[in-house]
Amino acid sequence: MAEGVPHIRSVVVERDIAFPPEKIWRALTQPHLIADWLLPADDFSLDIGNRFAFRQSWGNIDCEVRTVEPNRTLAYTWAAFGLESTVTWTLTPIGNGTRLRMEQRGFRPEHDEAVRGATYAWPAYFTALEKTLSRDA
Hints:
- This protein is α+β, with helices and mostly antiparallel strands.
- The chain has one domain (9-135): START domain (Alpha-D-Glucose-1,6-Bisphosphate, Chain A, domain 4).
- 29% of the residues lie in helices and 42% in strands.
- It contains three helices and six strands; from the N terminus they run βααβββββα.
- It has helices spanning 21-29, 31-37, 112-135; strands at residues 9-17, 51-56, 59-69, 73-80, 83-94, 97-107.
- It is globular, with a radius of gyration of 15 Å.
- It starts with 8 loop residues before the first strand and ends with a helix.
């Protein structure tokens, strides 16, 4: 770590899911499906630079699409409560489905509470995603 550069942390969740990358990609990128397992984001689109917001009862999480590689990688910024991070989804085909990896990167030392929240929330979102995938033919 360079002198004077704050330590940046990540929360990573990785899970093998018994669905093909194309189906998972759809759940990651279609607003009605995103709302089913994550949060409402009606203004989401796959255009690089598209600004959108996940809506919560307490306010919005402001986001901007940064990377789009269909069926492989999706990244967007994630900004709320003074935390600015990036969420990157990586889909890797495996024998019986897809290895789905999510990394939320950008937590600074003062973000301990946010790290704890993300560490708790993302696995639950993965479980909700799997339920959405099971229902959405």
